[in-house]
Specification:
- This protein has helices at about 10-20, 35-50, 75-85, 110-120, 140-145, 155-160, 165-185, 190-205, 210-220, 225-255, 260-275, and strands at about 25-30, 65, 95-100, 125-130, 145-150.
- By secondary structure, it is of the alpha/beta class.
- It folds into 2 domains: about 10-155, P-loop containing nucleotide triphosphate hydrolases (Rossmann fold); about 165-275, no CATH class.
- A 5-stranded parallel sheet has the order 2-3-4-1-5, with helices on both faces.
- α3 (about 75-85) links the parallel β2 and β3 (about 95-100).
- α3 packs parallel to α4, α9 (about 210-220) runs antiparallel to α10 and α10 runs antiparallel to α11.
- The longest helix has 28 residues, at about 225-255.
- The relative contact order is 0.10.
Length: about 280
Amino acid sequence: MIDLPEQPLAERVLRQALSRPFPPQQILIFGPPSTGKRDAARRVAWALADPDGHHDPNEVSVDITIIGGTGALIRREEVDGALADIHTKPMVGRRRVLVIDEAHRLSETDSASQLLRTLEEPPPRSHIVLVTDRVEDLLPTLRSRCAPVPFHFPGWDAVAARRDPLETHMRDLGAELGAAALTGDGAPGSIVAGIESKMRDFAAERPSQELRQLRASAEELAGKRGGKTAAKAQMPAAQYDAMVAQITAVQQLFAKVPPENIALAQKYEQQIAELE
């Protein structure tokens, strides 16, 4: 079963196609970049080759061939061997499947014409899945012979659900800081101090893995004879390491947010220098 929660239309089309007794032998998966088309094509290939799910889809299958454009064009010599494979009987699975990534790179004069002949007279128990970000550049004769499966950019709610909570919070704080700077609402020092306070509160509620490990080590030392003294001796260094780790994570996140937040990241760099 194909599950594509961020692509409901593509999921519906693929489920209907794959549920037929004789699924379409040519499938065209197209849409914008970074929308999950290639992962979906791999899952479709496995659903066709091994519909009963006897094998791990993360493994390599001798009945599935995947080729893609490493240069400006996919040339005939790259396609010939793959087309020869799908003309043979499946070795392990129920069907042979060829996936061609970046299908718009097929050379019009040789590889595309060779593929077109196979699409016109497909061998039995074989399937071809074309994947492209630029369907408008794919030859019309190839498009017309494939079952289309459109992909779209996911909605904002789907994008937000994939974000790490810390990244989402930092982006929100960055937006808040930028809005305050643009509107001039409050003194700059108080605005930055308020953002810093919110960052510290959020970090305290969700400590990093390193900080949790340091706390566990301190508690373990505190439970032993003389452990309290040892724990106290170790805490300054532990606190420093934990603070550096937290600040480094914040700096990495700030690389992804608007430029107006760089000043705050630089302030944290200064704090690290002072601690050292």
